[in-house]
Amino acid sequence: MKYLPFIGGAAIALGFWTRPNPSTYILRGNISGLETGWVFMYHHADGPTDSAAITHGHFELTGQVTDVEFCHLVFKTAAGNNLHSRGFFLQPGLIEVTGNKDSLGAESFTGAPVQDEYGKFIHDEMENLDWNAWNTQYSAAQEKKNKPKIDSLMVVAGKMQDRQKAFAKKYAADHPTSYVAVEELLNEFSYNPDADTLQKIYAGLASGIQSSYLGVELKKILDATLLTGIGRPAPAFTQADIKGKPVALTSFKGQYVLIDFWASWCGPCRLENPNVLKTYRKFRSKGFTVLGVSLDDHKDKWLAAIRQDDLPWTQLSDLKGWKNEVAVQYGVEGIPMNFLLDKDGKIVAKGLRGQDLEKQLEESLH
Questions:
Q1: What's the burial of 231, exposed, middle or buried (CB within 10 Å: 0-12/13-18/19+)?
Q2: d(CA 40, CA 150)
C-alpha cells in the first residue's frame, strides 16, 4: 500500500502548507457488510499492484498516476479468497467507492469524471443488450449438452457483439478525446479486427488520446493487425517444441499451415480442438498441417492437454502465458485464434472457427 505524507498541525502553526502532488490519487472505500478482507488494485498489464486491508468496511489506496488508467479492483476475504473484480477508471484526485458486500459489482464511484462517463457509456450500450439472459440460457444449454441450442445462441452472441462494436466505433467518432472511447475500442477490436476499419477509427482519435497508455496499446494492436493482414507473408518465428527443440515456421513452407493459438486452460480452445482435429485428418494427405502455439505457462498441463485432446501435430510454446513471443508478434489478444497460410507462407484467412476452416480448405485445396 502507498501512503501520502502526513502534514500535521505543527506545519500549519509554522505558517506553511504543502500542496498535494497534482498526480496523486486517493481511492477511499466503504463496503458495508465486509468487516475484514483485502482489496487489490491491478493497474495495466505491466504496472504495479496496490493493496490495502479492509477494516470495518473501510480501505484507502493512495499513489501517483501520470495518465488516466483503466484498473481493476479485486475484493478478497481475509483468508485471500476472491469475492469480486470490478474495472474502473483511475485518475488524480479523491475517488470514493461505496458498496455493499451482498452486491459487489454494483459499487458507485464519485470524484472521477472519466468513471462517470464510463458508467453512462455502459448504461447506454447495454440498454438493448441483455447479456445476463444470454448467459443463463447458454449455461443451461451447456449443462444439457444441447448443441443446436448452443449453436443458435452463438449466432445471437455474434449479432450482439456486432452491435457493441458498432456502438464503440460511433462513440469514438463522436468523442475523439475520450479515454472511455479508446478503452472500449480495446475491448471490442482487440480480437481479430479488420485492419482497414481499425486504422480509420484510430486515425480519428485526438493526438493526446493516441499518445496515452491506452492509445499506445491500441496502436500495438493496429500494427500487428497490419502485419498479419490477409495476403501478407506470415511473420517468421522460431519457438521450442514439446522436447525443447527449436522449430521454425519456414520449415513448413510448401504446405498449407494453420497456426493455431490455444492453451490448456482455455475452455473454448479445448472445445474447438475436435473440429481442428477432424479437419486435419481430412486434409493432411492434401498438404495441410497444423502448428500449435500454446499460451500455457505450466509445461505439465500443456502436455497433458495435448495427450487428452489427441493432438498429433507439432506444438510450440515458450511457456510465458499471454506474453508468448509469437502471440505478441501476431497481436493475439484472445484465444482460440488462428492464421491459415498457403504454400508460399502468405496469410489467406484467420479466425476460422467450426466449419469455416473446412470450407476454406475445400476452396483453397480444390
A1: exposed
A2: 36
Amino acid at 323: K
Question: Is beta strand 58-64 parallel, antiparallel or unpaired with respect to 93-100?
Answer: unpaired
Ordered structural domains, the chain, with CATH: 9-111 (2.60.40.1120), 126-227 (no CATH), 238-364 (3.40.30.10)
List all residues 6 or more positions away from 169 whose beta carbon is below 8 Å from its beta carbon.
Answer: 185, 188, 197, 201
pTM to 2 decimals?
A: 0.79
**Dihedral of alpha carbons 12, 16, 17, 21, sign:** negative
Q: Backbone dihedral region of 33: left (phi > 0), alpha (psi from -120 to 50 degrees) or beta?
A: left
Residue type, 204: G
Distance, CA of 52 to CA of 1 (rounded, Å):
6
Residue range 49-60, pLDDT digits in tens: 899 999 999 999
Determine the pLDDT at residue 106: 85
**Residue 209 pLDDT grade (very low, low, confident, very high; cuts 50, 70, 90):** very high
- Find out whether 41 and 73 touch, Cβ atoms under 8 Å: yes
pLDDT tens for each residue of 182-208: 999 999 998 888 889 999 999 999 999
**Partners of 85 in the β-ladder:** 74
